[in-house]
Amino acid sequence: MFYSFINHRTNRIFVNLSTKTTMAGIYFHIPFCKTRCTYCDFYTQTDFSLQQDVVNAMLREIEIRKTYLSEEVETIYFGGGTPSTLSAADIKNLLNAVSSFFSVNEDAEITLEANPDDLSAGYLKELIKTGVNRLSIGIQSFDDLQLKAINRRHTARAALDSINVAHQTGIENMSIDLIFGLPGQSLESWKMQVDMAVKLRVQHISAYGLTYEQGTPLWHRMKSGKIIPTDDDTMIEMYNYLVETCSKSDFEHYEISNFAKPGHRSRHNSAYWKQRPYLGIGPAAHSYDGNSRQWNVSSNKKYCSFISENQPFFEKEILSLPDKYNDFVMVSMRTIEGIDLESLKNNFGEKLHDFCLQSAEKYIQDSKIVRKFNFLRLTPEGIHISDKIIADMMYV
Ligand code: SF4
């Protein structure tokens, strides 16, 4: 389907271009949510009984993996799950541990994903003291019925209030997440939401088409005929309206699903897309060091016990050259810059460079890909079938 390419989130993409990088990122996976959204297939738990044990195990993991990154840490990202369920004291402890064992840039971007309901003035004031300087707020919709249809725990009012309170508290760097194609969401309703989003004083918007992930409650409802997914044509109209409106409002469309005011691209996600190394801490977190990727066990209980008993808590895969090439193509094609062919040739060799050009050729002829200044990038028409294009460009 068209919209599978604009899926839920992209912060677990793992690629390599070169190990000669000077900056790195750290990702914390906070696997707790107060309620479970019906579309979500991330590893997260609504039972908080192990939360403090998980935080303690994460503090220990930071020390265990202190040699994983040789580069300076430029970005730290608390994702999940719902990181705003952590106390400011726990966040501070985790950041202090990072500073103790890694070299952290003094201008580091430190992002916390938050649920609007958690952002009280008191909590935000404490958060600022920890060093968090960017919020990514999971708004998803400004319509209460749509929020209810996916079991979000906040209301539209709470979403708007959270942005206002964050401003009043002094947080000036904010991103919001929106989802289009929600059950019961018409094209007109989506347009109103986009219009509202661009008028808020936020610097970044991430907007994803709803995907029905197998096994989720939403998927079951769709399979049993209780929900009819939004048709592809409407999804395309929704996406086009988003792109046009963001562009008219000075948001740069720098990645398929991401829009930023000048100077406010997500540095953390941009580093993923530039194939920089990162360390993932916590249950189900992924790491990438330029030559391999690792993923921690997806169980809070096992994670805590493996760490405390000094047992292996992750699996690892060494990346072959084609693996790295495929990852490079997959993430580069999602960005506004596209594939840098010179860089591709230098890093992956002539054979894969030629393969890339050959596989792109028919799409260049069809105006779905444009080649300019030795870069290959998707055209607006190409974005609508980017899943297919990227799949065709994979080296098997
Ligand atoms: S808040 Fe986020 S991680 Fe938690 S259940 Fe909802 S979508 Fe999933």
General description of the model:
- The chain is an alpha/beta fold.
- The protein folds into two domains: about 1-275, Aldolase class I (TIM Barrel); about 320-390, Arc Repressor Mutant, subunit A.
- The chain is built from 14 helices and 15 strands.
- It has helices at about 50-65, 90-100, 120-130, 145-150, 155-170, 185-200, 215-225, 230-250, 265-275, 300-310, 320-330, 340-365, 380-385, 385-390, and strands spanning about 25-30, 70-80, 105-115, 135-140, 175-180, 205-210, 250-255, 260, 280, 285-290, 290-295, 315-320, 340, 370, 375-380.
- Strands 7-8-6-5-4-3-2-1-9 form a nine-stranded mixed β-sheet, sandwiched between helices. A three-stranded antiparallel β-sheet has the order 10-11-12, with no helix packed on it. The chain has a three-stranded antiparallel β-sheet with strand order 13-15-14.
- Helix 2 (about 90-100) links the parallel strand 2 (about 70-80) and strand 3.
- Helix 1 crosses helix 10 and helix 11 crosses helix 12.
- The radius of gyration is 21 Å and the shape is globular.
Element pattern in H and E = EHEHEHEHHEHEHHEEHEEEHEHEHEEHH
Helix content: 40-55%
Instruction: Note the total helix count.
Output: 14
- Summarize model confidence as the mean pLDDT: 93
The structure class reads: alpha/beta
Question: How many structural units, i.e. domains?
Answer: 2
| Unreliably modeled segments | 1-20
Q: Which strand order does the major sheet show? A: 7-8-6-5-4-3-2-1-9
Overall geometry comes to globular
- How far is the N terminus from the C terminus? 22 Å
The counted number of beta strands is 15
CATH homologous superfamily caption of the largest domain: Aldolase class I
Estimated share of beta-strand residues: 15-25%
CATH class of the largest domain: Alpha Beta
Largest sheet: 9 strands, mixed
Associated small molecules? iron/sulfur cluster
The CATH topology of the largest domain is: TIM Barrel
Rg of Cα set: 21 Å
